[in-house]
Amino acid sequence: MTILETKVALRINGEAVEVPAGTSIHKACESAGIDTPTLCWAENLTPVNVCRVCVVEVEGSRALVPSCARPAEEGMVVETDSERVRHSRKMVLEFLGSGVNLEQAPELHEWMQRYGAEPERYDQYEMPAVRMGDAPKIQDNLFIRDYDQCVLCYKCVSACGDDAQHSFAIAVSGRGFGARISTEYDTPLPDSACVYCGNCIGVCPTGAIQFKTEFDLRAADDWRPDDQDVTRTICSYCGVGCNLELHTQDEKIIKVTSPSDHSVTNGHLCIKGRFGWQYVQPDEPPLNA
To answer: How far apart are the first and last CA of the chain?
Structure first.
């Protein structure tokens, strides 16, 4: 017996679109070839609705709605590029860019150009925008935390919690401008509940959490994305079959990621898969957590 899939029909930017029931507006837009900016959303994480970059206008709705979490409904009429939507996205991007360093977030730069966002305009006032100004936290040789690049998208918290690792080592601490991603009582990372799976790195969109190897190469002005290759392989530590993406530069592994669409990992790895590649390069000093 074949169970028929329930479909819903809606209109997006005047175009008729039909998607399976339960599909988000964001995915409906994607199926129609309509590009929608996202920041806190990821394919392998539960939507948390915090960045508001993906908002769209829905006919009959008083407020703009987050497309990543709002399900498409029968007869819904959606506008993704109205003046109201464009203005909202521009303001959100400007606020983000005025408070943190987004140099390592190229996708956001593309969206800023598209919407004409100018974060620097907030510096022209008598009281310019306040920057984070925090020095990077370097507490081990595996990864660093740079709050000056953190946009509080909650992705790392989700990956550390219910969506992947279930370690719950980090959460949002503080209020307002003092909010930070932190361990409990700001405990040093090696002394916290962190198991060094690195899944927080895998989902961070701005470089606020990144491999120490990448951080060192950037500090030495030797980070060269155009000279890097990505090779897909299978982790050799156990028989689970996790897929790895080996990022190499100058014939050396510099970091490891995992494809979010892989049925085994969904983009997440353990400490061995994420950081246990030094045996391939025995001339390199070992990484110690």
So the answer is: 53
